[in-house]
Write a structure and sequence with these properties.
With 424 residues, the protein is of the alpha+beta class. It is built from 5 helices and 23 strands. The protein has 2 domains: 138 residues, no CATH class; 166 residues, no CATH class.
Length: 424
C-alpha cells in the first residue's frame, strides 16, 4: 500500500470519527431539550428541606424547621400551618415547563426574571444552609402563540415558559393558622361580658336565633341582631396578627369575654384596646373536674362509655387550646372586636309605649218627629188604637205678607162691645 492510499484512508477515518462525535452531541442535545412539558424541579426529596425563604430583597419570609415542625421566623417562631407549608412545597415541585426560551442572562432583565425584579422568588435550603433549589418567577407573556409565564431555577440561566404559573403568598401571617376558635352556636350555654361599664350575661333563647339577657330591665328590649353577634362571637374567631408580650407593651386588659359550652368547656378571653387596635389573650378550661374512672370488673354501657370519651376529649381540647395560645397576644379585626367588647347599654333600646286611644264621643241621637194622627172625619170611625181625647195639632197659619218699607202698618180696632147689634 503506497503512501497516497494510506493518506486517503486516514482522512476517511478522521471524517468518520468527526461524524460520530457530531451525532453524539446532537443526541445529547435532543435528550436535554424535552419537546413536551417537564417538571422544572426534579429529584428533590421534601425531607431534605430544612428552611424556606419566600420573596425578594433583604427581608424575605423565612420558614424554618424547629423541633420537628416548621415555624415562621418573621413572627417570633409562631408555629406554621402544616397545610400551608405542604401547599407551598407542592406548588414549587409541580411547575411544568416547555422548551428553553432563552439561556442568555442578558435577556433576564427584560423578562423580569432577575431576582430583584422578579414577581416572586422561593428558595429551599438544607440543614447546613446550602441551597437545594430555588425558583424565580418572572413576567407573564402577553404576546405569542399562547399564554405563559417566564420561570427559571435560581441556580441556572435557562428560562422556560410555564402555562400555570405558581402563586406564592407574600405575607408571613399567611403561613400560620389564623383561627383562634370556632364554636358552634348550638354548643353555647352562656356568655358573660365584662366592660368598665359593668357585667351582663346572655343565654340562648327559644328558636334558632333567640337570645335572652339575664336580668332584663323592664322598660327595655334587646337588639336581637347585636345580641346574637355577641353570643356567637367565638364562631370563626381569627386574628390579623400575632405578637409576643414583649412586642406590645402598655396594654390594659380591662375587658373580658367568657363563653361556657354545654360540655363544661370554658373559654376565657381578655381584651385591651390601644389606639385603633384591639389585642386579645386567651385560654380555656374544662370545669367538670370529677375524674374519669374505669373499673376492671364493671362493664359500662355504650352510653356511659360515650360520656366518658366526650369528657376526656373535652379535657384534652381545653388543654391543647391553652398550650397553643397562652404565650401570644393576638390582634383581632375591628368588626369582630366590637362584639367581644360590647357594652350592655349598646344592646338595649327603649320599649315602644302603646299609643293611648281616646274614647270616641257618642253620636247625637237622630231627632224623631212625633207621630201625627189625623182626626177622623164625621163619617169615619174612631181608630181604636188612639185615645178618644187625643190632642190634634192645630193647622199651620198661612204666612203673612211683610209690610212694604216706609208704609204705615194698618191696625184693626177691636169691635165695640157696646155697639148696638144690627138685625139681619
Amino acid at each position: 500500500m503506497n503512501n497516497r492510499r494510506l493518506g486517503i484512508l486516514a482522512v476517511v477515518a478522521a471524517g468518520m470519527v468527526l461524524l460520530a462525535v457530531v451525532q453524539a452531541r446532537l443526541s445529547v442535545s435532543k435528550r436535554s431539550q424535552p419537546s413536551g412539558p417537564a417538571y422544572l424541579i426534579q429529584g428533590l426529596d421534601p425531607a431534605d428541606i430544612d428552611s424556606i425563604t419566600i420573596g425578594k430583597g433583604k427581608d424575605p419570609i423565612k420558614i424554618c424547621r424547629q423541633e420537628g415542625r416548621f415555624v415562621v421566623a418573621n413572627k417570633s417562631n409562631y408555629p406554621a400551618d402544616t397545610k400551608q407549608i405542604n401547599d407551598l412545597i407542592t406548588k414549587a415541585l409541580d411547575i411544568k415547563t416547555s422548551d428553553v426560551y432563552t439561556s442568555d442572562p442578558k435577556n433576564h432583565e427584560e423578562l423580569q426574571i432577575t431576582e430583584d425584579k422578579a414577581r416572586n422568588v422561593i428558595r429551599l435550603f438544607k440543614a447546613d444552609g446550602t441551597m437545594l433549589t430555588g425558583v424565580v418567577v418572572g413576567l407573564s407573556r402577553e404576546t405569542g402563540p399562547g399564554p405563559g409565564t417566564y420561570v427559571r431555577l435560581a441556580s441556572s440561566d435557562d428560562v422556560y415558559l410555564t402555562e400555570e404559573p405558581p402563586y406564592f403568598r407574600d405575607r408571613a401571617v399567611d403561613y400560620v393558622n389564623q383561627e383562634i376558635a370556632s364554636v358552634k352556636r348550638e354548643d353555647v350555654n352562656a356568655v358573660t361580658v365584662t366592660t368598665p361599664e359593668g357585667t351582663y350575661t346572655l343565654r340562648p333563647g327559644t328558636g334558632a336565633d333567640g337570645v335572652l339577657l339575664v336580668n332584663m330591665p323592664a322598660d327595655k328590649k334587646l337588639k336581637d341582631s347585636d345580641a346574637k353577634s355577641v353570643l356567637t362571637a367565638l364562631t370563626g374567631l381569627r386574628f390579623e396578627d400575632v405578637n409576643t408580650p414583649a412586642q406590645v407593651s402598655g396594654l390594659n386588659f380591662d375587658h373580658e369575654y367568657l363563653c361556657w359550652l354545654n360540655d363544661s368547656t370554658e373559654y376565657r378571653l381578655k381584651l385591651a384596646q390601644k389606639g385603633e387596635k384591639t389585642y386579645l389573650q386567651c385560654d380555656a378550661d374544662y370545669l367538670d373536674k370529677t375524674p374519669v374512672t374505669m373499673k376492671p370488673n364493671q362493664k359500662d354501657s355504650p352510653e356511659e362509655l360515650k360520656k366518658k370519651e366526650a369528657k376526656l376529649l373535652g379535657q384534652e381540647n381545653a388543654l391543647k387550646f391553652t398550650m397553643r395560645h397562652k404565650s401570644w397576644i393576638y390582634e383581632v379585626a375591628d368588626w369582630k372586636a366590637k362584639f367581644l367588647t360590647k357594652k350592655q347599654s349598646e344592646l338595649l333600646e327603649d320599649q315602644e309605649k302603646p299609643v293611648e286611644k281616646k274614647a270616641a264621643a257618642p253620636a247625637p241621637a237622630a231627632a224623631v218627629a212625633p207621630a201625627v194622627t189625623p182626626a177622623p172625619g164625621p163619617n169615619q170611625p174612631q181608630d181604636a188604637s188612639q185615645p178618644v181625647n187625643a190632642i190634634q195639632p192645630a193647622p199651620a197659619s198661612p204666612p203673612q205678607a211683610a209690610p212694604e218699607p216706609n208704609q204705615p202698618v194698618k191696625v184693626e180696632k177691636p169691635a165695640d162691645v157696646n155697639a148696638p147689634k144690627v138685625k139681619q
